[in-house]
Write a structure and sequence with these properties.
Layout lengths: L1 H23 L4 H22 L4 H20 L4 H13 L1 H23 L4 H13 L7 H22 L4 H28 L1
């Protein structure tokens, strides 16, 4: 399920990059430098909040982030649901740092592609590869940890599904329905543009 969603996201990101290439190819060096500074600023904020050197602070921030994501879908969580999510976060605390490293590499690759000053078609193909083939930039350690994270997250979702209250279930179904409508609208816009 998660692998399928990620594959669809990659295709969507690759297509969006190709669609944006004609505009991106016109960026001036100063604009690319500004983008790079923005990436650096956002990365500093993320690192400060979620990758703090203090173990307790880091774990609390990572747990809060994951709990917020689940609350966004299901609403208020029971103490048991929160405890299960917190255990998942603790079991996978290395994953956040690995994902952060991957994010920075993606940003470096993106900026490097922009700096090569290709025409729109070549830039679009280059950017599409960056988004559609992330395994080209990923280490074996990342791939292994990411696979374990995906599998365990899938199990966590199944476990939590068994504990949902009727109100939580209604909220989850509504959120998923909203996402499905958004994706259908995006797919329709893509077909109309073609």
């Amino acid at each position: 399920m998660l692998a399928s969603a990620r594959a669809r996201y990659r295709k969507l990101a690759a297509t969006a990059a190709q669609d944006a290439a004609p505009v991106l190819a016109t960026l001036a060096p100063a604009q690319i430098a500004a983008l790079e500074r923005r990436f650096a600023e956002n990365n500093r904020k993320f690192e400060t909040e979620y990758l703090a050197s203090d173990d307790d602070k880091r774990r609390r921030a990572q747990a809060r982030r994951m709990l917020d994501r689940f609350r966004d879908f299901a609403g208020d969580l029971t103490p048991e649901q929160e405890a299960r999510i917190e255990r998942f976060v603790l079991e996978h605390e290395k994953h956040v740092a690995l994902r952060f490293d991957d994010r920075r590499q993606l940003q470096r690759d993106f900026v490097a592609a922009l700096r090569q000053r290709h025409g729109p078609r070549e830039l679009g193909a280059s950017l599409a590869d960056i988004f559609d083939k992330p395994e080209l930039r990923r280490s074996e350690a990342f791939i292994r940890e990411d696979r374990a994270w995906d599998e365990d997250l899938g199990r966590l979702i199944v476990e939590l599904d068994r504990t949902l209250s009727p109100d939580q279930r209604v909220r989850v179904v509504q959120r998923l329905s909203d996402y499905a409508k958004d994706f259908a609208a995006l797919a329709g816009e893509r077909k109309e543009a073609a």
